[in-house]
Specification:
Blueprint: H1 4-8, H2 25-35, E1 49-52, E2 55-58, H3 68-84, E3 91-93, E4 102-104, H4 117-144
Antiparallel strand pairs: 1-2, 3-4
Length: about 140
């Protein structure tokens, strides 16, 4: 069952599949329109997020909302702004096996693989190093026996 605030704003879906928790595009647009009066009345600047040690931190402006509906509207506004921008092509999913975080690849070469190099990237490199070490030890053990 969707939360009461989603039922109240008419954004709860009636289906029961894996997408039953996802708001519809129309719902996102309604939430974005509801969020317009919260800010300055005009388009907001994009919220910049910096990931430090796997934790997202605001690297620019932040917006506070008075209640869950207003907070949801702000998130929806950012989502719609992203979907309508050219940066949609830079959206990526973290390459770590245990995470499915999304991030915007703003690297100069557009080849970022992890949400955080200091967390997910480091773990992936350690696993790769350990696998190589095990492979190189296997022939040595076979030679000594």
């Amino acid at each position: 069952m969707p939360p009461s605030w989603r039922r109240a704003d008419g954004c709860a879906r009636r289906s029961t599949g894996p997408c039953s928790r996802s708001p519809t595009v129309g719902c996102l647009i309604r939430r974005r329109q509801a969020a317009q009066p919260i800010g300055s009345g005009g388009p907001r600047t994009a919220l910049q997020i910096a990931v430090t040690d796997g934790r997202p931190e605001p690297a620019g402006t932040t917006s506070l909302a008075a209640d869950p509906t207003a907070a949801s509207a702000l998130v929806a506004q950012d989502a719609v702004d992203l979907l309508l921008s050219a940066e949609t092509r830079r959206a990526r999913i973290c390459g770590a096996d245990t995470r499915a975080l999304r991030f915007l690849d703003r690297s100069p070469a557009h080849n970022r693989r992890w949400c955080s190099m200091s967390r997910c990237g480091k773990r992936a490199r350690v696993r790769l190093h350990q696998a190589r070490a095990r492979q190189s030890e296997a022939p040595r053990k076979a030679e000594t026996t």
